[in-house]
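Is magnesium ion placement plausible here? Inputs below.
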Amino acid sequence: MTKWAYNFGGGTAEGETGLKNLLGGKGANLAEMANLGLPVPPGFTLTTEVCTAFYDNNQSYPEELTDQVEASLAKLERETGKGFGDKANPLLVSVRSGARASMPGMMDTVLNLGLNDDTAEGLAKLSGDRRFALDSYRRFITMYSNVVLGMHHHTFEDILDTYKDDRGYRLDTELTADDWASLISDYKSAVKKALGEDFPQDPKAQLWGAIDAVFGSWMNDRAKVYRRLQDIPASWGTAVNVQAMVFGNMGDTSATGVAFTRDPSTGKKAYYGEFLINAQGEDVVAGIRTPQTLTKIAREEMGDLEPSMEEALPEVYAQLAAVFDDLEKHYRDMQDIEFTVERGKLWMLQTRTGKRTARAALKIAVDMASEGMISEDEAVMRVEPGSLDQLLHPTLDPDAPRDVIATGLPASPGAAIGVVVFSSDEAEMRAKGGEKVILVRVETSPEDIHGMHAAQAIVTARGGMTSHAAVVARGMGRPCVSGAGDIRIDYATQQFTAAGRVVRAGDTVTVDGSSGQVLAGEAKMIQPEMSGEFATLMAWADRARTLKVRTNAETPLDVQTAKDFGAEGIGLCRTEHMFFEASRLGYFREMILAEDEQGRRAALDKILPVQRDDFAAIFRIMGDLPCTIRLLDPPLHEFLPHSEYDVKAVSEATGLSVGALMARAEELHETNPMLGHRGCRLGISYPEIYEMQARAILEAQVVVGKETGTMPIAEIMIPLISSAKELEILAGKIAAVAAQIDGEPQYIIGTMIELPRAALRAADIAKTAEFFSFGTNDLTQTTFGLSRDDSGRFLPDYVAQGIMEKDPFVTLDQEGVGDLIQIAAERGRSTRKDLKMGICGEHGGDPASIEFCHRAGLSYVSCSPYRVPIARLAAGQAAINSI
Ligand code: PEP
Ligand code: MG
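Reply from A.M.:
I modeled the complex. Tokens:
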């Protein structure tokens, strides 16, 4: 026969420990605390299987349930020495939900159950406190009528308010026992009037009513929405916990409180919590009275006048502190606890692993490992890699109010405050004048780089997680909200509207790139703090991991930032980003606009020394770490002037007529530039561009090699290869350049694998390529046939309808794109056993994707500088997970 009910209390519990799936989180922990000999009010748990059976069988209970509840209740009566419905010595119970995963506040609870006209008088005599007994009874009628009978709370609140007004009372505490007695009678009349039936007086009927209500609440709308958001399956069901009531509202030696075994916001090893004397749990939560601190130190720190629990109830406090320690030792993690003191006796009502901030998670993990409570590997597993974001950038104070005007994608983390500007030139100009600016654009293009650099943060109305704005902002460490679709920008009038509000150029806004929110005005910020624990945990993660972590960076500032964050090389230097600076853009435009090869070469000759200096700067910072430098990738038209103002400026600088410029722009225009004349296709058409870049790289290498005595490690990477032949041709040209350079430059040549055909032809390609770097941005785009810049508009529908679990530009699609990676890895290695392989798409900084890279046997991941620590931790976890 299936066991549906499990009793606990009195130092033991039925069933083995750790039955969380069966007993729910609360039930399992109550049983576990009882087994540890901790003071837990006895009770019993109806299993989650009852819930599942109930919904599987047309909302009817398993046949044996009634008998099992009777037996459990009898046991509970024996344990407490009280009788359910006994007039002289009544047993009262709480009935609470408790699912496997915590669903705070989503389901129903009934307290003080078992009270009726008779037992309330019994409780009054027994406690010697009639006011307390009647107060409990009226609370029960209110709660039960609301939760079980479906009446509105305010029915009872209105009766109470009128009663108080009529008698000139202000606070509930002013009401006497007789007042409550009179109100109870009014409450019961209200129930009768609303439902046509008396308030149930039979405790058994009350109990079944409450059990029905709690199981019923599993399917309420709130719970359903919460489950959907948290990925909790409906099939898990909830358990129901029936537990003897203990009372924190029995006078001045009674109390109730909540506590954490360590500070959940800082992680400090100090008991943290609050309590109220002479109160029930709901009073602490309801915020009617201001709770007192737990410890003397906390009281002194906060300058509180009311005594702490340590001072007011020293003996119980000492007991509680001992329980905290026992629980931490047992669960080996910080606990979140609810307790009640009834006339000087401590009772534990709940324990669970406590939620905490990233900062606290880090400190607690490192401290617990140092205390010997957990291993260093476990400490590494305890911190969610993505949460490190909170520690690396200034962030918004989570407790401060937020006036949200628009929401988009959380494209690049961190928060910033500034005044709105709508053009990159203005951003640069105002930033030079010392202003902090937020660049707001419909979308950004390479021409906006200087504005993005000058801005504190970037907001775009269009574009996804791998849009130009998102990729560049992440690389620069600028917070960015992309694809904020509610924003309507009007460049002409220099303003945008969102949610019916108008924001003008010069207005102050706050951008939260971690949540994707744009807020009006100046929100409160917290600065990052790289504490000692950060370095310690990183060192433990580094020791565990086998994947190397490199960075995607090209400016000396970004390269240095990444190195400081622990990058072990550059995995992707996007050389096109080096041309966007105003001074270089001119030369580059000259090159594109040149009418023949000779003209192009002349322009390239001017770019060569600039590029050489760029590469030398990077080599100097990276020292003996490998640097993968990718030759030019983007479509040429991106470099052409777009605005009238720009066209005029270029015309003046080059001497070409505006008409000629427009004609050339027209000529270069592509219907589908992402699939057009970009990547190695440019090198095939204009080999002189790649030859110049190869020369710049290798000459810089020789210069820095001589200067420092260490030859920089140069890895030249060709983008967007789809056939071995392309690579062969280009590698040949680069070899010819290398042969002309004095000082014996050394390099290896490799390719991005970012097209499905390249993945499939990997065996062939590896004949020339000495390394592969998976460009999963383009590989995702081309595998799905999904534009990386436009998909933000409709991908949310795909995720909402469960067609895709996550945005594949954020988290690698392991089934499809991942398969191609595995195929390429296998085929590549079949040709070249020691083929070095990494990933440099945006997925290189995503923890779930990093886990995949570890399993796929790649040698490294490469990500934007601010993600380097996240990747180090995720790689450490992937290695520990696979042990
Ligand atoms: C990629 O496609 O994944 C990649 C890294 O290149 P880019 O984002 O520059 O196209
Ligand atoms: Mg690419």
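Short version: The chain has four domains: 50-244, 255-356, 394-526, 545-635+670-881.
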